[in-house]
Amino acid sequence: MTDHFEMYDDPFKMLILLATFVADQQGLELDYENVPSYENDKFLLENGKFLYKKDQVEITWFQFLGRDIQSNKDLTRSEYNRMFVDCMASVYGVA
């Protein structure tokens, strides 16, 4: 069994922001129950799952974005923020 750590406040907001960027890039409005799928060399986003490829950080949620959110790694707030900034930059080809 994989250990999971609860995520709080800032990492969750950063995940929503990333999902919003992805939806905007696809010309969609973010639907928390049906997060748009997206994949590049930095990360994978699909309904119920986010994977940061560089460090194999996997974040999951149940039914809609934000419900029972869990991560397979216990990162600091700063580490989560760096990870999401890296991902957001990659959506727009900045990184």
From TrEMBL:
The domain of life is Bacteria
Q: Mind telling me what this protein is named?
A: Uncharacterized protein
| Organism expressing this protein natively | Paenibacillus puldeungensis
Higher taxonomy: Bacteria, Bacillati, Bacillota, Bacilli, Bacillales
